[in-house]
Amino acid sequence: MEDVGVGRDVDLKAAGAELLPEDSDGRRGLRLGGWQIQSCNRPILTSLAFQQWEEKLGTSHLPEMVFGESYLCLLHVESGTKIHFNAFDALKGWKQEALPPVEVPAAAKWKFRSKPFQQVILDYDYTFTTPYCGSETIELNQEKITTENECSNLCWEDCDERIDLAALSSKEPILFYDEVILYEDELADNGVSLLTVKVRVMPSGWFLLLRYWLRVDGVLMRLRDTRMYCAFNDQNATCVVLRESCWREATFQSLSAKGFPSDSAAYGDPSAISNRLPVIKHNTQRLKILSK
């Protein structure tokens, strides 16, 4: 899903998909299988909007690049259930979790290099790690009940069922795909903190990956992935969404002790090295959506 786009007309027609009109604001998507799936890629926040976000979130720190108007939204039309992803809610999760700051040897260099009023004070989680796994809205008769953090009013149930990633790698045509960057920070040139969400729609269903990726050069790597999958079926039947969340983490020191490279340049692609990072936490849940 490196590029953004839609599938071939013949595949869209065969699946019964209806493309949504793409507008000047960057919104695009399609309707299929009782779902309306829409993404939007917009520029980073302006300076004024940035300040407003700091006030709303009660912080004086935000990532360098916040794509505040970008989002991914999946709406189950019949039930009004909406699953959506945006930077503001993700940063609310960061603020609420408030992990201790990662110790960085380079921090002393940052301070020596800075003027007094520019000193880096590591008294907050400057990595912007978030437990966020999506936001949910239920639209019933024009009224909206919204949950804007990781906790949900929808009935997610723990389960043993796993998303079949091997089946998702089949040759099934891709009808729509997009990647939305929610925020990014280069940690003063000492690594990367990146939150993105990718979506892929096939004739059989939709699949998405919400990924928080952190690399503090020479110190730590952290990966928090949330995957969701929903198979299309009869619109009168119960719709099931599977959600898997996995937190992986390792220090450069521990990887080096296992014989893996200690050079940060070897860890540019989280997909390529995710299996090297030990699992800290993993859980799988299921959401049953009933039609009205």
Task: Describe what this molecule looks like in 3D.
It holds the Pfam family TIP41. Belongs to the TIP41 family. One of its GO terms (cellular component) is cytosol. This is TIP41-like protein. The protein has 292 residues and is of the alpha+beta class. The protein has one domain (5-289). The protein is 17% helix and 39% strand. Strands 1, 5, 10, 11, 12, 13, 14, 15 and 16 form a nine-stranded antiparallel beta sheet that branches. The protein has a seven-stranded antiparallel beta sheet with strand order 2-3-4-6-7-8-9. It is globular, with a radius of gyration of 20 Å.
Mean pLDDT: 88
| Secondary structure tally: strands | 16
Rough outline: globular
Largest sheet report:
9 strands, antiparallel
Instruction: Please report the distance between the alpha carbons of the first and last residues.
Output: 34 Å
List the domain count as a whole number. 1
Tally of DSSP helical segments: 7
> What is the alpha-carbon Rg in Å?
20 Å
Keywords:
nine-stranded antiparallel beta sheet; TIP41-like; 16 strands; TIP41-like protein; 7 helices; 39% strand; Phosphatase_reg/MetRdx; 292 residues
